[in-house]
Specification:
alpha/beta; Glutamate Dehydrogenase, Chain A, domain 3; Rossmann fold; 5-stranded mixed β-sheet; 17 helices; 13 strands; about 50% helix; about 15% strand; binds NADPH dihydro-nicotinamide-adenine-dinucleotide phosphate; binds (2Z)-2-iminopentanedioic acid
């Protein structure tokens, strides 16, 4: 996008201030920069937001709760990890967003994720504010009982800060059905209440059908909408997927169902390249490997006789579509350049901020359709919102009902992106569209509240 010099100066001044106030928080700075580069040109035209300092206010979390989680390992050793809940903005609904357990978690990572969550949740059209939390606790290699004791200890602090009308956490990296169950069981004991204070719950205690699949399915639905906008479809296309966790597995499932050939999957050790494509049968095996046996992706290559590339990411493999579904900044400028050269048509971000700023610029400059995380992976939190609705109503919808609502929400997000991101003679700028559409709803609520 052409940006005039005055607006460029405003962006620079804004970012200088933000960097000073958030020293060393590089992930948070990156996420804010990505947003304000399209939001400042918008607020320069819609001056009510600029006059009310909405962007300055929206980039400062409402509060950050920081605490120690002490627990005992299987050998009787005492462990102490750090944990946070970043309650970013509750202008349009109770705080909502996942919990991440990974050694790389720190305040900067959780602020970036919380900020993204505010705009993403707004895009879903559901009444959800934005938050994120987690710990540098590393679940890898821990026994079930160790994970249980960690979760119990974490909830002893967290329970006083959450509630169905206050803040509703869910899963993210390292937090799946097992962890949510341990956390929920502890909340119930501490508060003696059975309430929808977490989402991603088990189906026997208030969980929603399709929540587990929702982020991956939603990313594929969003990809389908971007392709349809250009008169194309998913069937017959080849696809690269990274990761082999919750998002990646169900992204692969939906791609297979819609007739695409998925060539890759990965974990933090490397990627597998299956030129025949991951079939339904192979995927069932992979889901069992990852969800139940907690194994490594390398075992897929051993089992099905395909290549395994240790320490590498899949972006050099030639394909039509790409779905980065592992973690932030997993796809960098040189990857994007190689993908453009290989003729990649479209990218949908299943993970949060998986493409670096430079990689994103390369895609946009080369007319690669680019579905940014806050739009493309919003299906997960959207179905979390539907889980909250079902809990409040004390009913459960069928798989078909939830899936139809997910499709409708992804379609609505796509429409909003087109409304704010359409460009003459060029593909839609989904990045700008998602930022502006997400921003307007939260900003209007903040304006209405006055100076708060
Ligand atoms: P999981 O923990 O289920 O899976 C994460 C996957 O990514 C694993 O294969 C993991 O490999 C890999 N991975 C994690 N960290 C790294 C790293 N630093 N480098 C390389 N690979 C890594 O998490 P999810 O699938 O839930 O989350 C994946 C992404 O999707 C995250 O960005 C998350 O924020 C985002 N997301 C998740 C939603 C959800 O509903 N779960 C909703 C919207 C977005 P390994 O096992 O080796 O660590
Ligand atoms: O990044 C995300 O949107 C999530 N991890 C899901 C959050 C949620 O509340 O379901």
């Amino acid at each position: 996008m052409e940006t005039n010099p005055a607006i460029k100066r405003e962006i620079t001044a804004f970012m200088d201030g933000l960097r000073k106030r958030n020293k060393g928080e590089t992930e948070f700075q990156q996420a804010v920069r990505e947003a304000v580069e399209t939001l400042i040109p918008f607020t320069a035209e819609h001056t009510q937001y600029r006059d009310a300092y909405i962007l300055e206010r929206m980039t400062e979390p409402d509060r950050i709760i920081s605490f120690r989680v002490t627990w005992e390992d299987d050998k009787g050793g005492i462990r102490a990890d750090r944990a946070w809940r970043v309650q970013f903005n509750n202008s349009i609904g109770p705080y909502k967003g996942g919990l991440r357990f990974h050694p790389s978690v720190n305040q900067s990572v959780l602020k970036f994720l919380g900020f993204e969550q505010v705009l993403k949740n707004s895009l879903t059209g559901l009444p959800m504010g934005g938050a994120k939390g987690g710990s540098n606790f590393n679940p890898k290699g821990k026994s079930d009982r160790e994970v249980m004791r960690f979760c119990q200890s974490m909830m002893i602090e967290l329970h006083r800060h959450i509630g169905e009308d206050v803040d509703v956490p869910a899963g993210d990296i390292g937090v799946g059905a097992r962890e949510i169950s341990y956390l929920f069981g502890t909340y119930k004991r501490l508060e003696n209440r059975f309430a929808g204070i977490l989402t991603g719950k088990g189906l026997s205690f208030g969980g929603s059908l399709v929540r587990k699949e929702a982020t991956g399915y939603g990313a594929v639905y969003f990809m389908r909408l971007m392709l349809e906008q250009e008169g194309e479809g998913i069937s017959g296309k080849t696809a690269l997927v990274s990761g082999s966790g919750n998002v990646a597995l169900y992204c692969i499932e939906k791609l297979i169902e819609l007739g695409a050939t998925v060539l890759t999957a990965s974990d933090s050790d490397g990627f597998i390249h299956d030129p025949q494509g991951i079939t339904r049968e192979k995927l069932d095996w992979l889901i069992d490997l990852k969800e139940n046996r907690r194994g490594r992706i390398q075992e897929y290559a051993e089992k099905f006789g395909c290549d395994y590339h240790e320490g590498k990411t899949p972006w050099g493999v030639k394909a039509d579509l790409a779905f980065p579904c592992a973690t932030q900044n997993e796809l960098e400028a040189e990857d994007a350049t190689a993908m453009v050269k290989n003729g990649v048509r479209a990218v949908a971000e299943g993970a949060n901020m998986p493409c670096s700023a430079e990689a994103t610029e390369i895609f946009l400059a080369n007319d690669v359709l680019f579905g940014p995380a806050k739009a493309a992976n919003a299906g997960g939190v959207a179905v979390s919102g539907l889980e909250q609705s079902q809990n409040q109503l004390r009913i459960s919808w069928s798989r078909e009902e939830v899936d139809a609502r997910l499709v409708a929400i992804m379609t609505d997000i796509h429409t909003k992106c087109v409304r704010y991101g359409a460009r003459h003679g060029k593909p839609v700028d989904y990045r700008a569209g998602a930022n502006i559409a997400g921003f307007v709803k939260v900003a209007d609520a903040m304006l209405a509240y006055g100076v708060v």
